[in-house]
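agent> Task received from the user: take the single chain below, predict its 3D structure, and emit structure tokens. No templates, no multimer pairing.
agent> Plan: (1) validate residues, (2) run structure prediction, (3) serialize to tokens, (4) report one or two observations.
agent> Step 1 OK, no nonstandard residues flagged.
tool_call: predict_structure(input=
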Amino acid sequence: MAKVEERQLSTEEFVVKVKDLPAFKQLKEKVDDIAKNASWFEKYAWDNAHFLSGCVFYAAGLAFLASSDFGRLLVGGFLVGLGHSIVTAKIIHLSAHGAMGESELYNKFLSWFSGDFVGLFPAEAGFDIHIREHHPHTNIIGLGDSSTWRMPMLPGPVYLFLAPVLFPAVTPLVGASLLVKKPLKLLAFLVSAGLGLYTFVAIMVHWCGYTPLGGLVTLMLCRSLFSFSYIHINIFQHIGLPMWSQSSRPARLFQMASGVLNLHSNPLLDLAFGHSLISCHVEHHLFPRLSDSMCLRVKPAVRNFLLANNLPYNEDYYYNRLKIFMVDYEKLMVNAPPIWHYVGLQ
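)
tool_result: status=success, residues=346
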């Protein structure tokens, strides 16, 4: 078994006996065996049903927003927010990884639909940031260190509890800025996002009875409902954990085990974001092409393997992480993170 010893020195270090560190291949073989014995239905049916449920929630919410009854309006706003989160957080995430099915074309369509058309964020830019940077370089300073989520100019309460309401409105602006050096792809995104926004505002006007401006504002407010939790989970699961320099990055198994955290399962968050973003984030980082259903299925094997080899397996409650970030906001979100050093003892 790997023996990991943490020492508090002038620079923080993980001292690891390299000869005892298990190979990633050992864990991969266990996970591959589980995946090999799973049917297509077990791998993908739930996630595709989840996608359809998100569309149903969205449509039902828009129908409720056509009412003049305050209670129905609240229900409608909640359903639109929930449907928007399922489609633009869970589905775009899984489809970007090719985890919604075995068809590459199908995954690309879902990425475009949930990203460019509904979420107003280019799937192209999301792929570059998430697949090419964040995953291979998780918690490596200057590469996949989640620094894009830091806004040190904002006080903690504003960042955590007020700014997220603007998240849906600024998303297309940020997305477009990431494509300025790719004019053709920028044009394609602007057409897709423009068509998507026009479609939803037209529904708000012609079906729900709003003015164009009122429909747009109401739509953005509803879409922001789960933006608070979306921003929170993206910082809770990496920031505050060991960050590594490129020169001292650890072996991949240790990098993911030490730099990723699972939030304990929560029915509402599981529904809005999926297991790979909530309770199976460690498993997702180790095996990013697995669907949500499969991440949940392999979780016991991954957890037992890491703990049996004395490797980190980080877990915490959403509320606990929120308290930590409220108390230590400046340390975690304003100051530069301390760099950990991976020291391998032969």
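agent> Step 4: summary for the user.
The chain has one domain: 24-334.
agent> Done.
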